[in-house]
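quick one before i forget lol
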Amino acid sequence: QVQLVESGGGLVQAGGSLRLSCAHSGTSDVINAMGWYRQAPGKQRELVALIKSGGSTEYTDSVKGRFTISRGNTKNSVDLQMNSLKPEDTAVYYCYLERLGTFTFEHWGQGTQVTVST
């Protein structure tokens, strides 16, 4: 069973930084992509950043230049460095994994709260 374990959320003042980490376990399938989505109260879940198996990255426009996604210290993990945080970055951040088995499967972490105060 695939599990995603997230860490690193919390409360920070505007302009500050946080680092989120996500590690997966429970599969030896090819991992097509890992990344982060977020959902603010009353809003739809949106992509924040994604890193694909070939190393290419994708960011939502509002975080470009401020957030950086990278592979973690272990091959089964991914980090999201968030700098120059803004109150509008406040949301629950969900780790995302897409794996290629018989079909393509998607998995989600439980979410970690990021709160940016003014």
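fyi DSSP finds no helices and eleven strands in the chain.
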